[in-house]
Amino acid sequence: MGGGTVIVESNNDLEAQIAEWRAYVHRRRELLQTDAEELEDHLRSRITELTEAGLGADEAFLIAVKRMGSLDELSREFAREHSERLWKQLVLPGEPDAPAAARSRRELLVMMLCAAVAALAIKVPALFGLDISGDDAGFYVRNVSLFALPALAAYFGWQRRLDRRVIGVLALLFAIGAVAANAYPLADDSQSTVLTAIHLPIALWLVVGVTYAGGDWRSDRRRMDFIRFTGEWLIYFVLIALGGGVLVLFTAGTFDAIGLDAEGFINSWLLPCGAMAAVIVSAWLVEAKQSVIENMAPVLTRVFTPLFAVTLLAFLVAMIWTNEGIDVERDVLILFDLLLVIVLGLLLYAISARNPAARPGLFDKLQLALVVSALIIDVMVLLAITGRITEWGFSPNKTAALGENVILLTNLAWSAWLFLGFLRGRMPFARLEHWQTRYLIVYAVWAWTVVLAFPIIFDFV
C-alpha cells in the first residue's frame, strides 16, 4: 500500500509539472493547438523512455525538457517543417507570408458564406407561408437552433477537415433534431414545445462541440477547449447583440425621421437574420482574436464569481433569518434553475482559464464558497419541486426540472468535494477539470432525452 501511494504521488507531481509546461506553451501565440499537443506527446514519450530506463519522474521530466531544446528553437523547427501555417510569419520574420494571408482570406470568405447561409436559412420557411411574427412563431421557436448551428458546424468542419464518417454522423444528429422539432404533433403552447425549444439548442450545441474538437470528442483537453470557446463565444455574441440593439434603434429613428415605418423590416429581416449571422461571426471572432478575449474573460470571471458568491450567501442568511422557504411557484423555480446554470457556467469557465499547476489561492476558496452555496440552494429547489410533484403529479415541465436539478446537484456536489481536496492538497486540480469535461456527456444525453422521449412519454402535452 505504501509503495502504491508513492507511485500515485509521483504521477501527480509529474502531471503537475507537465501541466505547468503546457501552460507556458499555450501562452506562446505562435504555436497552434495541434502543434502544442504534438510537442506534449513528444515530451511524454521522452519521459516514458527515461522512466523505463530507471530514472525518477522528476529527473526524467527535467532531462526530457532539456533534450527537447528551447521552445523558441522548437517553434522555428516546426515553422520550417510546416511553412504554410499562419504563425510562420511570427517565428521567422522576413519569410514570405503569402500562404498565411491566403488562408486567412479563405477563412474570412468561408465564415461570410456560412453566416449568409444561416441568415437566409431563417427566411426559407417564409417561402412556404410561415410568418415569423404571426401565428407561426411557435415553429420558429422550436427550430431556431436549426437555422444557425448547422452552418456553424459546417464552418468548423471545413476548418478542422473532418473525416467523412464523422460528418455523416453529425449530419444524422442534426436531421434527428429537425425531425424531433417538427414531426411530433405538438401545440405551440404545449409544455413539450417549450422544452424542445430549450433543450434542442443545448443538444445541437454539443454536436457543434464535436466539430470544434475535430471529431476527437474523447479527448479531455479538446472538450475543455470547447468549454473555453463557449464562454468566449458568449461574450462576443452579447457584445454583437448590444451593438445590434444600437443599430436597430438608429434604423428605426432615421427612417421615422423621413416618415417611413421600418418596424416590418426590422422584425422580419434585420433582427432574425442578424441574430443568425452573429452566431457564426462570434465563433470566427473567437478563433481570430483569441489573444484579445483571453485577457477579458478571466477578468470577468474573477469579477462575477465573488459577486455571485456574496449574493448567494446573503440569500441563504436572509432565508435562515426570516425562516422562509423557497416559493414553489413555477416562475420562481425557473429563476433559481437559471441562477444555478449561471453559477455552473462561471465555474466551468474559471476552470478552463486556470493554470492547473498553480497553487490554491483565495479565488479558489471563493469558488468553493460559490459552489457550496449553489449546492445548498439546489437541494432546497429539489425539495420544492418534489413537493409540487407530490401534490400535483408529474408533468413534462416538473419532470424536466427534477431531472436537471438532480444533474446539477450531482455535478456541484462532486465539484465541491474535488475543490475541497485540491485546497487541502490531497488531489491535483486536473481531477476537477477532467470531471467537468466528462460530465458534458451527461448534459448531452439528458438534452436528447427531453427532446426525443418526453413528448412521447407525456402524450405530446
Return Rg in Å.
Answer: 25 Å
> What is the mean predicted local confidence, pLDDT?
81
Order of helices and strands: HHHHHHHHHHHHHHHHH
What's the overall geometry? Answer: globular
The biggest beta sheet reads:
none
Give me the count of strands. 0
The tally of domains stands at 3
Low-confidence stretches: 1-8, 75-97
Beta-strand percent range: under 5%
Distance between the termini: 57 Å
Approximate helicity band: over 70%
Alpha plus pi helix count: 17
Structural category is: mainly alpha
Write the layout of secondary structure elements.
Blueprint: H1 2-26, H2 33-52, H3 57-68, H4 71-81, H5 88-91, H6 98-121, H7 137-160, H8 164-182, H9 191-212, H10 220-257, H11 263-288, H12 290-322, H13 330-353, H14 362-392, H15 396-423, H16 429-452, H17 454-457
Describe the structure.
The chain is an all-alpha fold. It folds into 3 domains: 2-91, no CATH class; 102-288, no CATH class; 290-457, no CATH class. It is built from 17 helices and no strands. α7 runs parallel beside α9 (191-212) and α13 runs parallel beside α15 (396-423). The radius of gyration is 25 Å and the shape is globular. Residues 1-8 and 75-97 have low confidence and may be disordered.
